[in-house]
Amino acid sequence: MSRKAQPRRKRSVNVCTLDNATISRLTTEFTTLDTEGTGALLPAQIEVLIKQSYAPTPEELANVFNCLNINDDDVVEFDEFLFGFYRIYKAFCETPGQEFEDIYNEYAAELNFMAKQGSTQRSEDIAFSPEVFAAAMEELGEESVAELRRRFCSFSPDGGIDDKLARDDMAKLLKAVFTPSEEKIGKVMMFFDMSGEGEGITLMNFVNGMTLLYGDLGHLAASPKKMGPISPLSSPSGEYAPGSASPFSLVVDGKEEELDEMESAVGSPEPVEVL
């Protein structure tokens, strides 16, 4: 009499382990974000985390620099920055109830689009000239111009003494205006919420999720393109080539079925004891 085959038991694979120093750093990061001490991170805190982890690529720096650099030289002057704002202002100024901060938020979104696409999206097509610039200054008003100058100077390592930003200074500008989309925030929440409870990200959720990302917060804001297959079980010491996929892109920037494939491949990560 033949024995009945037993169903294979599904094994859970621990992707990698983090050293105590990394776990301590992540615990501190979690505690800093959990300002109300609830023990769980909600979308607002995850948005802050993504913003903090964002690092513009050399291509994004070049794109926004080229879009703002009207004079086609080695620096972006305040006049060019202001004129970029003015082009957005003209696109939205007739919308009822628009205040300076509303227009600046639209400008921030436009700067993000410039960085990603190397072109403008919603700016008015206005050619620069001394006459047009003078009219722009008058239309915006002294208060708005002064606030724009203050923000522009904050992106310069010397405090904007010469009213100029070099190409590398675009990094501070882009980090300041970067705002993750609600879709991105939702995907990051989904990635960390391995329990599926949907009531916020606990410290254990956070550390286990960061274990899949090898403890590197930089993966949270990145959206690398998938150039080929990559295993989530690959060595944590391996470097990602430009344009290659990170483990995070497979679960956050991919489709829902790709998330299922990831979970199927690695199982649930072994809980990390947080001291």
Tell me the span between the first and last alpha carbons.
54 Å
Number of helices: 12
CATH class term of the largest domain: Mainly Alpha
Mean of residue pLDDT values: 78
CA radius of gyration is: 23 Å
Q: Could you tell me the CATH topology label of the largest domain.
A: Recoverin, domain 1
Oligomer: single chain
Helix content: 40-55%
* Uncertain ranges: 8-15, 224-275
CATH architecture of the largest domain: Orthogonal Bundle
Taken in chain order, the helices and strands follow as HEHHEHHHHEHHEHHH
Can you offer a commentary on this structure?
With 275 residues, this protein is mostly helical. The chain folds into 2 domains: 20-54 and 180-266, Recoverin, domain 1 (Orthogonal Bundle), CATH 1.10.238; 58-177, no CATH class. 50% of the residues lie in helices and 4% in strands. The chain has a two-stranded antiparallel ribbon with strand order 1-4. The chain has a two-stranded antiparallel ribbon with strand order 2-3. The chain is elongated. The protein starts with 19 loop residues before the first helix and ends in a 9-residue tail after the last helix. Residues 8-15 and 224-275 have low confidence and may be disordered.
What tags apply to this protein structure?
disordered C terminus; 4 strands; mainly alpha; 12 helices; two-stranded antiparallel ribbon; 275 residues; two-stranded antiparallel sheet; elongated; Recoverin, domain 1; 2 domains
